[in-house]
Amino acid sequence: MATTPNSLPGPSVRTIPDGDTRERMVCPDCGFIAYENPKVVVGSVVVSGDRFLLCRRAIEPRRGYWTLPAGYLEVNESTMAGAAREALEEASARIEIDGLLAVYDIPRISQVQVIYRARLAEPSFEPGPESLEVRLFAWEEIPWDDLAFPSVRWSLQHFKDWQRTGDERARGNPEGVGSGRPQGL
Amino acid sequence: MATTPNSLPGPSVRTIPDGDTRERMVCPDCGFIAYENPKVVVGSVVVSGDRFLLCRRAIEPRRGYWTLPAGYLEVNESTMAGAAREALEEASARIEIDGLLAVYDIPRISQVQVIYRARLAEPSFEPGPESLEVRLFAWEEIPWDDLAFPSVRWSLQHFKDWQRTGDERARGNPEGVGSGRPQGL
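^ inputs. structure came back:
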């Protein structure tokens, strides 16, 4: 069993544990095996009438850029509850979820993103600790060049596509980007 | 900071790390924080003509019961690639994926299940190491009382519903089960 030591604390030795088929990080002090798992990001495209709620990030990565209310799903939480929690944490916004908009694969960073369609349930919102600013944008005002991540753009465009076509199938990655799953399937 | 020690190796002390808001398991030897994350299960309802492919589990939990080819998504893997890999590992089956069938929340065990609709791409299949037996069942032959997990039943029923209605919206948990997300949204 070949090992690649490094100097980080905790599970810091890369090796294939007995009975396993893949390399895992193992702690040389305590023997703990840190199974790396993909992470689930939950979020929502939130509208109020015909305007879209976006949050300007107060944290890295992409501090200062605009994003959807979204973040990591917690243990023992449903994806819908997680999406609602993120809207509350990042924008102090209570939302009503209408349906599943998209499941995006970001295998490069081992993320699966579950994005819902939602509406503001109450008119009030304000920045939480992870946001510099929260605003409603008309479609024409959306700061496309200052969005934090490609999946923010995909989500907004897929929401608009859903509005235009009435096609409620969950979307996937845009064609040719990552998952191999055709958009709309 | 209150701690609850126990006798397991590795991260074995439950505490709220500085700057965090939730309890995490921390290793008293090396200080490593084990963030527990929900896990992503990927799988598919695989048909050949009008018959459904099921695998009889060779492993616990639910050894001897019938399940879909499904399992944990690996790092750097898309959900579609993961679903195809599981069909290959558990049933030696090459599949063609047609679309997203469902996203189920199982918050009690911190799982998100991403289930696809698929067809056998080649007629051959046989049990992999985690299966005792692999079989194609006509709808009327499905061993409903011997399915391994509720989500296997949900998946089969949602697939059938998709066939009957042509409604390609991704399904969620059956109403009243777990997620709070209405079926079909």
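Residues 73 and 81 of chain A are 9 Å apart (CA to CA). The two ends of chain A are 42 Å apart (CA to CA).
thumbs up if we can close this ticket
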